[in-house]
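**User:** I keep going back and forth on a fold encoding question. It is easy to fool oneself when nobody else works the same problem. Could you pick a protein and write out its sequence and tokenised fold? Could you put it straight underneath, so I can go through it closely?

**Assistant:**
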Amino acid sequence: MNFPETFYRWRPHPWHGLDVGENFPDVVNAYIEMTPFDAVKYEVDKTTGYLRVDRPQLTSSMSPTLYGFIPRTYCGDRVQKLSPSSSRGDGDPLDICVITERPINRGEVILRARVIGGIQMIDGDEADDKIIAVLDEDPFWADIHSITEVPKALLNRLRHYFETYKLTPGSNEHVEVLSMYDAEAAKGVMWAAQDDYKERYGE
């Protein structure tokens, strides 16, 4: 049987099988695991590539943006060096938060995201940066090119969500948002995560 060149006979793994995008690091492909409508924490299964339930959200707050990761990135030694308060990278693909004006109410989608900044975060003692982006070609956000142009209320929601999303009574989880950085710093983290990926998994 002859298939078109673009046909995938087998489902590609969203971390390893999807392309990062032709315009990396300015515009990237993002695989979305969670939406602002999700009261459950979904996470891609590293073995199968399917989305699995990680846990119910531990607090009443839910992610204020779309949340997922950038394919073919890995938070290893290079990412850790950009976050000197950490002792290691978290060993996961690089997370991304995508802002959009139109509601997207389902995960397990791929979209193009334009990078505008990032969050330096320590989870335990691991570097766990979050890239901040807007949905590419979303006219509502078309003139936004820097995290400093995003409404402060939305940035505060992001900070609060990540600082509290693991908190429960008696929990020893410690998450700290150290700073929010601009697009150029975010692209440096992305290059580091791409190089970490290549070192661990190859081209």
In short: The domain at 27-201 is CATH 3.90.80.10 (Inorganic Pyrophosphatase). The longest helix spans residues 183-201. The longest strand covers residues 109-123. DSSP finds three helices and ten strands in the chain.
